[in-house]
Amino acid sequence: MDVLVTGGTGRLGRRLAQPLQEAGHAVKLMSRRGAGPGGIRGDLATGRDLDTALAGAEVVVHAATDPQGDPWQVDVAGTRRLVQAVDGDRLRHLVYVSIVGVDRIPYGYYRAKFAAEQVLLASGLPVTLLRVTQYHEFVDRVLDTARRGPVLPVPMGWRVQPVDVADVAEHIVDVVGRPPANGVVEFGGPEEVAAADLARAWAAAQASGPHVVATPVPGRLGAAFRDGAALPTGGERGHRTYGQHLHG
Fold this sequence. Notes:
Blueprint: E1 2-6, H1 13-22, E2 26-31, E3 39-41, H2 50-54, E4 59-62, H3 71-85, E5 93-99, H4 108-123, E6 127-132, H5 136-146, E7 151-155, E8 159-160, H6 165-176, E9 184-188, E10 193-194, H7 195-204, E11 211-215, H8 219-226, E12 236-237, H9 242-246
Parallel strand pairs: 1-2, 1-4, 2-3, 4-5, 5-6, 6-9, 7-11, 9-12
Antiparallel strand pairs: 8-10
């Protein structure tokens, strides 16, 4: 099938081309600049070139997002633009990459992702809302940012289930070939881990590892993570653990 991947230059998007092609699909990777092999230009924030990028698409893997900018413009308004530009008569499946817990964790970016899900459900298009857990590289980045010299404070009691981005890419190829769920499915890493244990493993892998200090986090956000809102309640699992990621 003809597959368009939005967010084609992102961490996940650039990992999708090869496995999709190996499964027999023709793949275009959409980004604002359309750079690289298979790249095509399309801007969800403005709508520029979306009609051209989406022309002929039978499957759309919607992986574009803007967590550090304005997710309401890209993730929500951009998803509305995508729905308006897609050829509904030709489209067979739209897979939206979301996050486990967007409906339960009170965080602005998650609220935007959840709102984008609602746009797709209301569109009448054949969709699968694929919620995944945090990527291993995201955990690395968060821990590196949280480090304060020799000390690494981490939230006490938080539980997560990080996943390898390559496992997610392979799973998306499987999802593309299935009938649309027209609802939510989940995909997570192979093991549930306390945030403090992840931090200790990360610290041990550093040349001069910091001392991990578990710190209480008050409020609704902290309570949600302690209650397991970031953990999948069903669905399939990846294979590569965070420990395997750390040790190559």
